[in-house]
Amino acid sequence: MRSWARFWDALAERRAGARSPWPAEPAAPIGILLPEEEQLRRRLAALGLGGIVAVRVTDNRAVMVSLSKERVLRIHRGYARASDRVLRAVVRFLSRSTPPTLRRAARHEILSFGAEAPAGGPAPRRRASDRPRPGDLVHTERLAALFREANAAHFGGALPELPIRLSGRMKSRLGQLCLEPRTGVPFEITVSRRHVERHAWGEVADTLLHEMVHLWQHVHGHPVDHGRAFRAKARELGVTPAARRAVRRDASRRGTAPRD
Ligand SMILES: [Zn+2]
Predict the structure, then answer these.
(1) What is the structure's pLDDT at 114?
(2) Cα 201 to ligand 1 centroid, rounded to whole Å
């Protein structure tokens, strides 16, 4: 009985906070309450951004990132939620030593984050039929590895690394470079899941390279089309410029699938 009484006394004391042996709990979890400006300042500094006087967040979507003469960085609030990869692009974009091509690629990466994750808005929803499947990962990782290799070998590493996704809805197309409708900024490469599952890897690789040539067009300010610049670059990479293939093995249905 005595020990119980002591126990309840101790508990009451702890509840009251008096002489508690435990440190007082903070009023709110540390970190969550850090203002976005401070989060961004710390993260960008950790990623190598130097020489900035202050960071100011903005809600103006027309100016995602800008640096004033006084070295005050203005950056959209939404970037507090961006991945390190996107913030590294911010650092590259702001660095004076970044060559113009890499700077354009960095700008692209910065803007495509804005397109993917509008500040305060809900994430874009995909229809149920087009959700990723567990088996996709092995293919998308292989495609991402090919993207990095080809980027280094043929594009001087200037292409921004876009997410690559398989689509179950692409029945008439093999691949597509997806552009944000409002800005025309590419944000994703989609490849037909049927194409990946049914056709030889060499053909799938050609599809990815085809879309990479389109991305190269965008990065260099060319129109994204199948014109002269596209054909020349595709030939240089050994990709058939006018790539179409029969999607159906059934000879009676002569459907062909373009690479968009
Ligand atoms: Zn195309």
Answers:
(1) 62
(2) 18
